[in-house]
Amino acid sequence: MATLSIGADDLVDNPTPRVPVSLCLDTSGSMGGSPIEELVRGVNLFYDAIDEDDDAHDSAEINIVEFNSSAGLVHDFASIERLQRISSLTANGATAMGAGVNLALDTLDRRKATYSGSGVLYYQPWLVLMTDGAPTDNIDLAVQRVVDLVEAKKLTVFPIGIGSRADMNTLARFSPNRPPLRLDGLKFKEFFEWLSKSVARVSRSTPGDTVKLDLEGLAGWAEL
Amino acid sequence: MFKEFHYQVRGKGHLRDGTPGQDRTGYLSRGGVQVLCLADGAGSASHSQFGAQAVVDEACTMLVDRFAEFSASDDGARVRVELLGQLVLKLNNVANRHGVKPGDLASTFLCVAVSGKRFLGAHIGDGVVGYVKNGELKVISAPDNSEFANQTTFVTSGRALESMRLFRGSLDGVAGFILMSDGTGESLFDSRTGELARACAKLIAAVGSAPAELSKTSKHTKRLRRLMDLKIRAATKDDCSIGILGRNAASRSDGAA
């Protein structure tokens, strides 16, 4: 046998498959005060938990879309190493949920195209939609896009109602496979802890794995 | 004759989760036909290690017995149907024996068979088949992933027949073949460029230039296993498996497999 000398240059170092997660957050006027402060704390805790998990740290890429009277990008997709913790979000205006969801879906589409163009494998994208109220714009197109993607198994969606005034019937339209969740009080911390663990579970999956989300883990803080 | 090496090692993720290694490899040589097979059991399938073993065993036997017929056939569609049909039949029997559904035995499938001056092979799902021909390292069959990283096609999938890639050719100028599961592919296949790592050519050359047929305890075999156990396995959480056929220049000039 010829001398077997395999060095690092003889091997390839493929990029880790990515999990794109879009947080689509209601920052309308009704979120002012404690809700928006708790939401910011929850998002930062989510970032910290992702950072601490070896698998999720390498895989997760997160962006934030906010919606109030219009929709906007708080920050684009980035790995946890490049993400700055958010210092604050400003609550004001109406609840343009349709615009927010459409923008989130557009950013996910662009991110997937970037992955494909550079040969980076990726897992099914996640959309987390959080609101404390009801939409003030037309959501029909956004609902149709989400439902089409979920039914084609191309998107995992988590519609989350914050507090008692969240319009759960509207959120249900975005979730054909499971009922939306209502946060028990302002327990963003528990929700984002669960979300980070779920991202980590997906990051560890290999071809053929069916990733089952531990929805029972939500029982302590949400009404299903 | 080609010399061969095949091996599988349980992945770090499987060790952490307490799940068994689900990759299997097999080799059979009989009547001048050499067959090398590899199957990667699906993580979501409860008994996929049994399915992977059954697929490897059945394909080795079938291809040894029917190499001449398949190699000469111009009806690739029929060969596909017969090959897949035989594997599915075997899986149904194994499923009955274990009291599970065939889908619980899901695995990918990669194989290469050589005899005389010809080779043939087949591939369902992810993993890679490559070879060295006229000194060039080339991919014969690349991973068949769906859009997402944790999805692929298995022998038991509804679209297995459609997904199966069948290939054959002349052994002129061929120094050897390499089969790998996706776990091994993380070190030996560049998903961005679609090319094999340089190590693949070195591995084929190393197997081909071994002084004699590789025994399980030879120092050459141990060296190859050590590479898999340490470097290849370290780069992934998944199981890693590999199959290599190699021959030296003298064998190639003889024109005989």
How would you describe this protein?
The complex is a heterodimer of chains A (224) and B (257). The radius of gyration of chain A is 18 Å and the shape is globular. By secondary structure, chain A is an alpha/beta fold. Helices cover 36% and strands 19% of the residues of chain A. Chain A has one domain: von Willebrand factor, type A domain (Rossmann fold, 3-Layer(aba) Sandwich), CATH 3.40.50.410. In chain A, helix 1 packs parallel to helix 6 and helix 3 packs across helix 4. The C terminus of chain A is likely disordered. By secondary structure, chain B is an alpha+beta fold. Chain B is built from eight helices and twelve strands. Chain B has a five-stranded antiparallel beta sheet. A five-stranded antiparallel beta sheet of chain B has the order 2-3-4-5-8. In chain B, strand 4 and strand 5 form a beta hairpin. Chains A and B meet through loops of A and helix 5, strand 10, helix 6 and helix 7 of B.
